[in-house]
Amino acid sequence: MARPGAGGALLRVLLSQLPPAARGPPPLGLRGPAAAAASYGTSITSAKIKVNGVPLHYKQTGQGDHAVLLLPGMLGSSQSDFGPQLKSMNKQLFTIVAWDPRGYGHSIPPARDFPPDFFERDARDAVDLMQALKFKKFSLLGWSDGGITALIAAAKHPTLIHKLVVWGANATVTQEDLKLYNAIRDVSKWSEKIRKQMEEMYGHEYFAKTCEAWVDGISQFADKPDGNICQHLLPHIKCPTFIIHGGKDPLVPQFHAEYLHKHIKGSRLFLMPEGKHNLHLRFAEEFNKLAEDFLQ
């Protein structure tokens, strides 16, 4: 979950401003909705498709046989969270899709809300999006909130998910986590740089209200036994799973990654010593290689 804390240091790792993706026309000869956004070479295309009654925005690139869905963090989008992956991951081996969950990025309307099952709803939307794009089987790369969504999707749809990579994710909410969440409730205390980026994307009112709603939404899990988000689902994950953790992540303590590793059978855990919460952006080349090597 992209969740900076007090003092400004944590705010700097929330979301990075990335250059707009290059766009190109879709090639001919592809089937169904995927034709609207498929791309070859280095082009990145954007489109919307209605899934579960909501027009979901996504970006797509590559022509490989192995489909991969990138899942962003809180208030994140395909543009803000995955620029280096859309640009530089191997497009001969992979077809890469990055989506904006409902209420985030360009998947507005609807406004974002956080009912008790919002992670399950995102998981359902993500899987149904890929099926609407005619991908029969695919891998998931999930960051932060998107990592939680990916864990749930992999557990509930074992026949659809090929491989799973998560980082900055957690299966429970602790009292320590609650302190981090409440530290970002008031967006006026955020760093000016990050606040400006969010306001440019969402406008001040939507940004502020959604941040407050997210804090309330994620905090509700602390009232459950053991702060459970999805820990009961981890034993049901059957696909090969790669957990990456930043050794200097100030937002998600290492015990969360270790817990995932312990409870997902056969999973791998890799510690990136200098990595923080946004390790896939700050160390994009190393991250991309790790992910590609695992996915192959």
UniProtKB/TrEMBL annotation:
Gene3D superfamilies: alpha/beta hydrolase (3.40.50.1820)
Cellular component aspect of the GO annotation: mitochondrion
GO BP: homocysteine metabolic process; xenobiotic metabolic process
InterPro entries with a match to the protein in the record: AB_hydrolase_1 (IPR000073), AB_hydrolase_fold (IPR029058)
Domain of life of the native organism: Eukaryota
Molecular function per GO: alpha-amino-acid esterase activity; serine hydrolase activity
Protein name: Biphenyl hydrolase like
Organism encoding this protein: Chrysemys picta bellii (Western painted turtle)
